[in-house]
Write a structure and sequence with these properties.
Blueprint lengths: L4 E5 L3 H13 L3 E5 L2 H11 L3 E5 L1 E2 L2 E2 H11 L4 E6 L4 H9 L4 E4 L4 H30 L11 H13 L6 E4 L6 H10 L8 E5 L5 H9 L15 H5 L4 E5 L9 H10 L1 E3 L6 E3 L3 E6 L3 H6 L5 H7 L2 E4 L10 H16 L5 E2 L1 H9 L5 H15 L4 E2 L1 H4 L18 H15 L3 H8 L3 H11 L2
Parallel strand pairs: 1-2, 1-3, 3-6, 6-7, 8-13, 8-14, 9-10, 10-13, 15-16
Antiparallel strand pairs: 4-5, 11-12
Helix pairs in contact: 2-3, 6-7, 13-15, 14-17, 17-18
């Protein structure tokens, strides 16, 4: 069983001490509280995986405490303890958020069985969540397969740093797959069973981004009708990706810097200081150094974020990947639409190879999806993709007034468009892959 953060809430010191010693003997981290106020403070500052809460806390009720504990630590499990067990009290405890019920007096083995049950429930919930996320996303998975040396290098760095806690800054144009590589880092890390949470900085209004990131309490501002734990709290134990971090408001940057330094933060409208165990990744399509010189991004924050930098090349710099990527996207969408007969025509393959793809992978995916929706026949043509036939001017016939370089460029492009892999293109051309790579760089595709 994974080591847990456990909170024991009981007004009897002997019970608190006994449970604390028992959980510590199993390797868990245990904190105790004798009152509702102490429990809420501990939950806000440290969070918990499991909280054991006595129903009677002096003159107050442990059941009344449950909603507050759930709000402070959304992912934590609550277990109610009582010497006055009844069916009505059990139902009420579950209604208020309890995951289990423990009758006093109990033996150490009873505690262990509760933890085992909760661990099994947690694993099941995570599997269901992953399955739901996969069904919701419904995306094909070609992003991380590449014949491009530059992209392979980026993936190699991602895999190498995944096991560490090092912060990583992912750089690249929009649509190059920064979010996908960030999730790869998370899934290869020891945090893989915990949440992967994305904060889309440009998509959230600047005045609400602090609340979205750190959370707020009800009444903190107009429209705050309920508590919001914030995405940092939701990512507890896992990974938080700051997507397009260059759009982070300047006023919010010192607060993020503080969190990066000591893992402490406050929710909007709540003076209580909290802690969170979250690995931070960041992604940007901007020049952060230029933003720093212009005073739009703090230099000290940049230094904190770019411990490891991974550069993702745009699709125009990895044209050897376009045919295979397009085929995988096409396979995904034809299965979704029940059209196994869809196929690219030779003209469509040429158009795919000649297009510069300024929108990168996202543009390619959208073009293929568009084609599977609009193509009137099984053969997908350039116009179905929204592309012109031969986006680059084709060379004139042999013997025309063109240079040898122009003829060679168009021939290389045509071969790359007609075969499924970079290796096969080199074989058709009668050159090795290194020479093909140099020619591709020479002609800028």
């Amino acid at each position: 069983m994974a080591k847990l953060d456990i909170l024991v809430v009981d007004d009897e010191p002997n019970i608190r001490r006994t449970l604390e010693v028992h959980f510590a003997s199993l390797g868990h981290r245990a904190r105790t509280a004798g009152t509702a106020e102490e429990a809420l403070r501990a939950a806000r500052e440290h969070g918990f995986d499991v909280a054991f809460v006595d129903v009677r806390l002096g003159e107050s009720s442990g059941l009344d405490l449950l909603p507050g504990l759930r709000a402070s630590t959304p992912g934590g499990k609550l277990v109610v303890m009582t010497a006055y067990a009844s069916l009505d009290s059990a139902i009420e405890a579950i209604r208020r958020g309890a995951a289990d019920y423990l009758r006093k007096p109990f033996q150490p083995r009873d505690l262990d069985l509760v933890l085992e049950r909760l661990a099994a429930v947690d694993v099941t919930e995570r599997r269901l969540l992953a399955a739901e996320e996969g069904r919701a996303a419904g995306e094909p998975a070609p992003w991380l397969e590449s014949a491009s040396p530059a992209f392979q290098k980026a993936l190699g760095v991602a895999r190498q740093v995944a096991a560490s806690q090092t912060r990583v800054l992912l750089r690249g144009e929009s649509g190059t797959g920064k979010n996908v590589v960030a999730e790869l880092i998370h899934r290869l890390s020891d945090r893989r069973t915990r949440p992967f949470v994305v904060v889309p900085c440009p998509a959230v209004p600047a005045e609400l981004l602090e609340s979205e990131l750190f959370g707020h309490v009800r009444g903190a501002f107009t429209g705050a009708t309920r508590d919001n734990p914030g995405r940092i709290a939701l990512a507890e134990g896992g990974t938080l990706l700051l997507d397009e971090v260059a759009d982070l408001p300047l006023a919010l940057q010192p607060k993020l810097l503080r969190f990066l330094e000591d893992r402490r933060y406050e929710r909007v409208g709540d003076p209580a200081t909290r802690q969170a165990d979250v690995r931070i990744l960041a992604a940007t399509n901007r020049d952060l150094e230029a933003a720093t010189r212009d005073g739009r991004f703090r230099e000290d924050l940049l230094y904190r974020l770019n411990v490891i930098v991974i550069e993702l090349p745009p699709l125009r710099e990895r044209p050897e990947d376009v045919p295979a990527l397009a085929e995988r996207f096409l396979d995904h969408f034809r299965r979704r639409r029940g059209r196994p007969d869809f196929a690219f025509s030779p003209a469509a393959r040429q158009a795919l190879a000649f297009h510069s793809w300024p929108g990168n992978l996202r543009e390619l995916r959208n073009a293929v999806e568009r084609a599977t929706m609009l193509a009137p026949a099984a053969s997908v043509e350039p116009e179905d993709l929204g592309l012109a036939v031969g986006s680059r001017p084709a060379a004139t016939a042999l013997g025309g007034p063109v240079s040898l370089a122009a003829v060679e460029e168009e021939h290389v492009r045509g071969v790359l468009a007609s075969v499924p892999s970079y290796r096969e293109a080199a074989a058709v051309l009668g050159i090795d892959e290194t020479t093909l790579w140099r020619k591709r760089k020479q002609y800028g595709f």
